[in-house]
Amino acid sequence: MKIKGFILLFFFITLYSNAQETVEVDLSNPHATIYTHFYFLQNDSYEPKKAAATILGLSEKKAIEKVLKIKKVLDGKGLSIDFNKIPTNPNYKDSIGYTTFNKYILFPERMPNIYVEKTEGSWYFSAETVARIDQIYKDVFPWYVDQLQEVIPVSGHKKILGIELWQAIGLLLLLVAVLVIFLLIKKIAFFILRKIQHQITHRTSDLELDKVLKKLAHPISLLISLSFINKFFPSLQFPLAINTWVFLGLNIAGTVFWIYVMLKLVKVVMRIYAEFTERTDNRLDDQLVPILNNFLKGLVLVFGLFKVLRLFGVDTTTLLAGATIGGLAFALASQDTVKNLIGTIMIFLDKPFHIDDWIEAGEVVGTVEQVGFRSTIVRAADTSIYQIPNSKLSEIVINNKGLRLYRRYQTNLGVRYDTPPELIQAFVTGVREIIILHPDTRSEPDSYNVEFAGFGDSALLILVNVYFKSLAWGNEQSSKHRLHMAIIKLAKGLGVEFAFPSTTVTIEQFPEKKSLDLKYNTNQERIDAVILKSVEDFKAENPVEDIIENL
User: Fold this and answer.
1) Rounded CA separation 384/378 (Å)
2) Which fold has domain 335-403?
3) Closest CA to 353 of 341, 371, 336, 340
4) Is the overall model pTM greater than 0.85, yes or no?
5) Where is the Mechanosensitive ion channel MscS C-terminal domain (predicted)?
6) Which of 157, 146, 153 lies closest to 68, judged by CA?
7) pLDDT tens digit string along 199-239?
8) 105 Cβ partners below 8 Å, 6+ apart?
9) pLDDT tens-digit readout, 391-440
């Protein structure tokens, strides 16, 4: 039985020995070099001389000092290496930068100066890494860290829940310092932001904007507090596992706060821009505020999302490439949306109209109410709504009646062919006087026309061409009504008859039948009296202040 026991024991020992893999120094590729460095600096496989083989051109003592500092820096910053992502290709080249080299950067974002490169057929830590590691170490672990270990008593190294007592006290002091810094920086940030706001807007107080600035000062102070923690937390020398989670949390919190700061900054900028647009006559700028606001917020959120994904190790380059291809396919499938977007940009650049302008765009006639991201809303005179895609609106001819200086009104007054010349001249003179006295028409010389213009099929045509001062459609109709009523009263007083399409049959000789010709009173005194009475009546019907203002 004893012999069998020894045989079984020998068998298991031999099997266990053969199962163990002997790790040797390997510098053949980036993965092998980095694995060699970290494997021989672990507690259960601590052989710093073998780890020092990853440094080229230094004495063994100096090389050991360098590799130890590299590991402490990475551990202090919580940078945990994922060996599955390190390339095993002996001829690996970094193709991310502008040029390609045989090098591999462990953490391109957070620690770009620590990397390995191929030299003399093997992979070593780069000459730049070796030259800068002392300064990097000082930046991560300030001068007092090494001296702190010498003054900590033995009782300070007692562990509570796996954390040494001095580390717990240091963490508590760090949190208190961060709280004081947060409260102080918050007040300073708000004071500086208000000063900047006053310089831009030239306004001493704005309660609504002050609330936004306070909300902006809050995350700014948090960001500064996080940077303070990020700077001094490695000094507590927690193990890698704790540092990894702490710095991951700090980076995520920092990214979230940065997103919050940028969103609030967008809100502040848009608020200031909105106040600026309110002071301008161009109301099209007012429509640009919500569009820019949504665009900038979306941009901030997209960049923030990519930053968070990179913190979790997602390759955003591949993601961007996929998004670009998908975006191209989506753009091809939605060409109309892209055209409308370009049309929107062109409308805001060219500014063919403004809000509340009366426009004619093809078959659509109405008032511009809103310019959106994709389409423009036009309200017609019957209050119906037209929604015109901006791509079409940017291509068609637009008659912007809202940019007119005055509203032109032109018509022909037809009087009977048998009207005496004296009454025609008196009628023209009276209409001119009415236009001069009308409070809503231009009365300057050459700004109106009332002339005997020609001979129509059944009437003598008198041209009336005037310009109304108000551009509003409703005011124009009211002004025309007052003008028309005054002209009708003038014609009635003078005895001038308006013609209508008719046919006159003249019978020169017919017994006992009288002619149908009207008997016109052409007495000059009566004509002057009628014109004077018509003008006086028009004055009485219109406010004196309006007439004086018009004159």
Assistant:
1) 8
2) SH3 type barrels. (2.30.30)
3) 371
4) no
5) 412-492
6) 146
7) 766 666 566 667 777 777 877 888 888 888 888 888 777 78
8) 94, 112, 114, 115
9) 888 788 888 877 778 888 999 999 998 888 889 899 999 999 999 988 88
In three-state form (DSSP H/G/I as H, E/B as E, the rest C), the secondary structure along 30-43 is HHHHHHHHHHCCCH
Domain 407-550: assigned CATH number? 3.30.70.100
The C-alpha atoms of residue 23 and residue 46 are separated, in whole angstroms, by 12
Q: Which residue has the tokens 């980076």?
A: 251
Spatial contact of 396 and 350, defined as CB atoms under 8 Å apart: no
Q: Which amino acid, residue 535?
A: V
> In which residue are the tokens 């800068």 written?
132
Laid out side by side, the sheet with 449-455 consists of 407-415, 460-468, 449-455
- Closest to 429 in 3D by CA, of 530, 327, 304: 530
Q: Are 438 and 484 in contact (CB under 8 A)?
A: no
What beta strand segments (E) does 356-459 contain? 358-361, 364-371, 375-379, 385-389, 398-400, 407-415, 449-455
Identify residue 353 by its one-letter amino acid code: F
Q: Tell me which residue has tokens 């500086």.
A: 192
Question: Is residue 78 within a helix (H) or strand (E), and if so which, with residue range?
Answer: none
Q: Could you tell me if residue 388 is left (phi over 0), alpha (psi between -120 and 50 degrees) or otherwise beta?
A: beta
Contacts of 307 (CB under 8 A, 6+ apart): 255, 258
Please state, in angstroms and rounded to a whole number, the distance separating the CA atoms of residues 507 and 117: 120
